[in-house]
């Protein structure tokens, strides 16, 4: 089964412009066209688009995504390169998650702080609570 660009754009929540850009940049190496020159997206193309979105979400630049796709097209001789690239992405995501967890910890603390302060009517109230009396999610 094939899909037109508008159908794909709706399915993957991207604009047709972005999909055309991906093709122009060589990120959709297997995309075919019909006799009228219209793009015909297959399930395989949709999988590539989802993978591109995933890699972008890790912070990977399009230049590196293109390199991965080129390695894929080259075949099995690039398996180790692709494996290493994904381990690097995994490390980048883990670092991002650790930073986000620190941010969440601070936001959670501030929510607690202001809950206590608003209830007491003063910002001094949370400061008067002993460390051992703090909620577990704040103490951690």
CATH architecture of the largest domain: Orthogonal Bundle
Sheet having the most strands: 2 strands, antiparallel
* Number of β-strand runs: 2
CATH class of the largest domain reads: Mainly Alpha
Please state how the strands of the largest beta sheet are arranged side by side.
1-2
* Backbone CA Rg: 24 Å
Instruction: Give helix and strand order, one letter per element, not per position.
Output: HHEEHHHH
The 3D shape can be described as elongated
**Alpha plus pi helix count:** 6
Task: Detail the poorly predicted runs.
Answer: none
Strand residues, percent: under 5%
Proportion of residues in helical segments: 55-70%
How far apart are the termini? 52 Å
Q: Which structural category do the helix and sheet elements fall into? A: mainly alpha
The CATH topology of the largest domain corresponds to: Multidrug-efflux Transporter Regulator, Chain: A, Domain 2
Quote the average pLDDT: 93
What number of structural domains do the residues give? 2
Domain HTH merR-type: 2-71
Keywords: DNA-binding, Repressor, Transcription, Transcription regulation
GO molecular function, one term: DNA binding
Protein name: DNA-binding transcriptional MerR regulator
């Amino acid at each position: 089964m094939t899909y037109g660009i508008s159908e794909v754009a709706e399915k993957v929540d991207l604009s047709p412009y972005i999909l055309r850009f991906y093709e122009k940049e060589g990120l959709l190496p297997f995309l075919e066209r019909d006799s009228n020159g219209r793009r015909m997206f297959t399930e395989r193309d949709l999988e590539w688009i989802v993978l591109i979105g995933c890699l972008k979400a890790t912070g990977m630049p399009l230049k590196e995504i293109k390199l991965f796709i080129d390695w894929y097209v080259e075949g099995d001789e690039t398996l180790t390169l692709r494996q290493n690239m994904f381990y690097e992405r995994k490390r980048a995501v883990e670092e991002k998650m650790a930073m986000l967890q620190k941010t969440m910890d601070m936001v959670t603390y501030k929510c607690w702080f202001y809950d206590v302060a608003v209830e007491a009517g003063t910002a001094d109230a949370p400061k008067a609570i002993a460390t051992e009396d703090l909620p577990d999610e704040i103490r951690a």
